[in-house]
Amino acid sequence: MTDEFADQDVIRRLLNESGTWAFVGLGDNPDREVHNQARLLQRRGKRIVPVHPAAETVLGEQGYASLADIPGKVDVVGVYRRAEQAGQVVDEAIAAGAKAVWLPLRVIDEAAARRARDAGLDVVMDRCPAVEWARRG
């Protein structure tokens, strides 16, 4: 994979200027990496929205069963699903009107990333929000 979906200006903008992050795959299991990433961004002032079939309340935020169920706008959709499921989540993010999708480390679907970019979304793929945040000091 190239760095086609790791533009530092896009990463900086998403981390600094976005307000609401929907985390697809975020359930109430604190041992999962998605939980750590959501907690980190929440502590950095982002509103997090858990998206999980169980629609659990996580980190004090109401969960939703799907992106389509979330009231209001979502700036960034974090795709914390297996790579083979990422394309479906990206398509749902496009349909829901998200402004960006972030596919974390080892979640790689270049075709889905291109669909999102072609639909006007910012795309980050195979990058960790915590690592990228640390790079910015």
From TrEMBL:
<dbReference type="InterPro" id="IPR036291">
    <property type="entry name" value="NAD(P)-bd_dom_sf"/>
</dbReference>
<protein>
    <submittedName>
        <fullName>CoA-binding protein</fullName>
    </submittedName>
</protein>
<dbReference type="Pfam" id="PF13380">
    <property type="entry name" value="CoA_binding_2"/>
</dbReference>
<dbReference type="InterPro" id="IPR003781">
    <property type="entry name" value="CoA-bd"/>
</dbReference>
<feature type="domain" description="CoA-binding">
    <location>
        <begin position="14"/>
        <end position="107"/>
    </location>
</feature>
